[in-house]
Amino acid sequence: MTSAAAALPNAREWQDKKRYLCLMGLIGPTLLLTVLPVVWAMNQAGWQSASQVLFWIGPILLYILLPALDLRFGADGQNPPDEGMERLGNDRDYR
Length: 95
Known about the structure:
With 95 residues, the protein is an all-alpha fold.
């Protein structure tokens, strides 16, 4: 057995370490629903200028933070082995 073959995980041993990162997709809608009552309260308090700053969260997240995180973490080189594809096809999270 070569060293490259020994480094590859067995299909039964392979686990997706980023399985639950898809839940991070809920951050954007949750932030919007959280910020809207704060903006309303700031407008009621007379802080119209300060409340408009909160609406910049979306563009900052989309155009600055997410690309920076993408550069930081790089490409995902963790593909499942071919032997494990049937098991993933039967998993409800990967259908």
